[in-house]
Design brief:
The protein has 154 residues and is mainly α. It has 5 helices and no strands.
């Protein structure tokens, strides 16, 4: 498969990841109080309250999860913009910033999640790393090669 074909698929993959973030962020405020996330809320409650958690705790969790939705939605928007610029201008800087952002976020999120014994969050973070870092590093390399070969052909 040619580099341009691989590059195109990687770009689509990253657009899908950005759209997924945007969509999940938009849905979080709507699903944060639904039975779908009941087990997740219970896991958090077990860490902070060994017995039964007060009702106010659940309300606070729902509020924080809803608020986090706006953050995830914004991250999806920013991801989409950086993918667009990286694609249009074959910018290694865009791939670098996306990679840096993920590599700054993931270890911190994993550490905080492990401290709270929220292993499900650690697994989600590992999945995100595996799904995003390899394509970004490949794009970094492909665009470096394309830029170099374009310069040599002049």
């Amino acid at each position: 498969m040619r580099k341009s074909n691989i590059r195109g698929w990687l770009i689509y993959w990253l657009y899908a990841a950005a759209a997924g973030h945007f969509l999940v962020g938009a849905l979080l405020p709507w699903i944060s109080s639904q039975p779908l996330v009941e087990v997740y809320h219970q896991l958090i409650e077990q860490y902070f309250w060994p017995g039964a958690a007060p009702d106010a705790a659940r309300n606070a969790q729902i509020w924080w999860m809803s608020l986090f939705g706006a953050t995830v939605q914004t991250v999806g928007l920013w991801m989409g913009a950086l993918v667009y610029f990286g694609d249009k201008y074959r910018s290694r800087i865009a791939w670098g910033w996306l990679t840096a952002g993920i590599l700054i976020w993931a270890p911190q999120d994993m550490l905080i999640s492990m401290q709270a014994k929220m292993i499900v969050n650690v697994w989600v973070d590992c999945f995100a790393l595996l799904m995003l870092i390899p394509p970004l590093l490949l794009l970094w390399k492909i665009d470096a090669t394309l830029i170099k070969s374009a310069g040599e052909s002049k």
